[in-house]
Amino acid sequence: MTIEVRNINKSFGDTPVLRDVSATVESGSLTALLGPSGGGKSTLLRVIAGLEQPDSGTVRISGVDATRVAPQRRNVGFVFQHYAAFKHMTVFNNVAFGLQVRKRGKDEIRRRVTELLELVHLEQMANRYPAQLSGGQRQRMALARALAVEPEVLLLDEPFGALDAQVRKELRAWLRRLHDEVHVTTVFVTHDQEEAIEIADSIVVLANGVVEQAGSPHDIYDNPANPFVMRFLGPVTEIDGQLYRPHDIDLSIEPRAGSTPARVTRVVRLGFEVRVEMQIGEQEAWAQVTRGLAGRLDLRPGSTIHIMPSHDSRLRVETETLPSATA
Questions:
Q1: Does Mitochondrion appear among the keywords (predicted)?
Q2: For residue range 19-59, what is the model confidence (pLDDT) as tens digits?
Q3: Is residue 8 part of a domain?
Q4: Is 208 left (phi over 0), alpha (psi -120 to 50) or beta?
Q5: Is residue 208 located within the same domain as residue 80?
Q6: Which run of H or E residues covers position 296?
Q7: I want to staple 288 with a disulfide (CB 3.0 to 4.6 A). Which of 88, 247, 279, 295 is the partner?
């Protein structure tokens, strides 16, 4: 169930939110719309769902022009950040609601809901009410409800945004496993780079209503299209006007051909990793090394080290004016 978005423009009043946006979501893939707040991610998701109409451009789902098709006729499941659960209904009835609206038989509803509750590991919670569930359990219930009507496309708007960090980690791993079982074409909105990289097959980076880059997590991380993408998709440090990943900086006690001297200003131990903050002339930079290497080099504030980027030059991105973090 491929989704093709072509030349979408959308403004609210005089404020442009999407500017000539084009992207393709491959059938059966798990695709992340990633970017800063106000970048247009949720608006694009709502345009795909039919909850917003674009000012211009087209949305094609499985080769069919769905741009002006009503949301209920697109066979799309939508999960909001805040669950939108029916508080007066049990978990079972929340999941069954879409099937009841479609007037499915009682036996079919019971079978389908039971299967889904087992799939999302809530079969023991069927008779509870949403208020009796944890945040993670309510989100799994919302996903089961969206899947109940067997949508061709599943759209998730920051599905884990309201949850604490540990529950987010658990649920994103669970979502990846769930997707591998049901193979529904899925698009989810997130501003969490680690979340997108960990579970998505492909990423569309949006900022200021423009697609900055689209591709696999590996390609975007290692071959960013511009400084904004490089900065947004992971930590960076700047040396001599170039951006590098901090873990791609080699440190040594002795000078080497092409190395640059630096003075260590701070050493921060973060579990297995160590952040080494440095001064290079008037410029501040930092590198990320293992605790073992930090110990062997005896890194401490005031000591002099010699640094050299360790990776292929194609991973360097020349600095330039970057897009604003918000639109």
A1: no
A2: 999 999 999 999 999 999 999 999 999 999 999 999 999 99
A3: yes
A4: left
A5: yes
A6: helix 291-297
A7: 247
